[in-house]
Amino acid sequence: MTKLKTDPTTESSLSKTVSSNSSQPLTGPLVWFRKQLNRLSISQKIAYGYGIALGIAVLGTTVGLLIGNNYQNYAQNLREDTLEESELLMDLQRYLLEVQIHHQYFAVLFQQPDLFQEEYSRFKKHSRLAQHNWLALKESYKNSEVDELEEEVELLNNLIKNYDSIIKAYTQRIEALLQHIDPSNLKPEEIEAAQKKFLELSKSPLGLNLRNFVYDLEEIIEEVEEERPHAKAVLEASERL
Fold it and tell me: What predicted TM-score, i.e. pTM, was given to this entire model?
């Protein structure tokens, strides 16, 4: 992340550019302003927020405040977008870890039917939530009201490329294994065979890919978490206008 900084040149640049567009219809500067704002880094958006105060003096109160309100709306959307993505990512990672834990518990609960059934119910819940969060996360980036950072988009695209169908495939594989198991009526040799199948799944490409998905989520989580204080600073700068 770029360190936050403001300087007179930034403020002067904004006031001069906005001034040169003041002869356009009222919607012209606002459309132009949003396009320019979308292209900026987080730190530049903060710096331009201070510059808007000078723009108000140059353009006049009405147009200046309209641009200021537009900036504040954008800052609010940026803040909400960052919080939403952070929550979706961390919940997704947690649900995937839960699914892996349930997988491991299945292998040791074959002789305890009641506990096995409870574990199965939790597995279905967390696998469903993981799939839901994954779809919601992709939709969040697809229909974002702010321009996402290139680094985030690249990380998400890599996740989609490598793991888009992994949750569904893994869940279906677990269900297929459980379909042939009745914990209340298993012979010792059947328990051993079932445990072996679950262990093999953990070491299979499918099981290892799910584990890698959890690890790779950490990178984009760190990217979004690093963005949160900057998004907050943009919003605070807009509220001081």
Answer: 0.69
Domain total for the chain? 2
* CA dihedral sign, ordered 69, 75, 78, 82: negative
C-alpha–C-alpha distance, residues 117 and 183, integer Å = 9
**What was the pLDDT predicted at 61?**
53
Instruction: Provide CB contacts within 8 A for 232, sequence distance 6+.
Output: 79
Phi, psi dihedrals of residue 228, rounded to the nearest 5°: -60, -50
CB 86 within 8 A of CB 225: yes
CATH number at residue 222: 1.20.120
62: in domain: yes
Domain presence at residue 113: yes
pLDDT above 70: residue 51: no
- The better pLDDT of the pair 25, 178 is held by 178
